[in-house]
Amino acid sequence: MLNKAATCPEIKEKVCDDEISALPTDLLVHILSIIPTKDAVATSVLSKPWRYIWTLVPRLVCKDTKHTNNGKSVWWFLEQSLQLHKAPILEHLEVKLRSRCPDDADVGKLILNAVERYIR
Fold first, then answer.
1. N-terminal to C-terminal alpha carbon distance within the chain
2. pTM attached to this predicted model
3. DSSP 20-71
4. Dihedral of the alpha carbons of 38, 40, 43, 49, in degrees to the nearest 10
5. Over the stretch 5-47, which tens digit does the pLDDT of each residue have?
6. pLDDT value at residue 103
7. What confidence category does residue 73 fall into, taking pLDDT thresholds of 50, 70 and 90?
8. Where are the chain's structural domains?
9. How many CB atoms are located within 10 Å of the residue 28 CB?
10. Which H or E run includes 83?
11. Where does the record place the F-box domain (predicted)?
12. Which of 57, 106, 51 is nearest to 78 (CA)?
């Protein structure tokens, strides 16, 4: 079987375009708001334009899925992510820990930070 590109010089191999990055930021934020927070944050490594899109997501759900470190990784993530978070309104903040709350967790600071972001 012959390759069409080889037999027809006018047909060129199509390079895969990054069409999703061309979508409006509001739509990208909406898409990221319906996937798990950890996956939305992971998109920050895709490219420079994607680095901070997750910070506009108005919904943060953080779950401690392992019994390691008594949930410290979740609290560290929350403290760091809320410092970077830029959404004008935080519609939803959910924190679930499987193990007990870490001794150094500043719950008051977390609540104050959420209130300052006009949490609903």
1. 61
2. 0.66
3. GGGS-HHHHHHHHHTS-HHHHHHGGGS-GGGTTGGGG-SEEEEE--SSGGGG
4. -140
5. 555 556 566 555 678 888 899 999 999 999 888 888 888 888 8
6. 64
7. low
8. 18-116
9. 21
10. helix 72-84
11. 20-59
12. 106
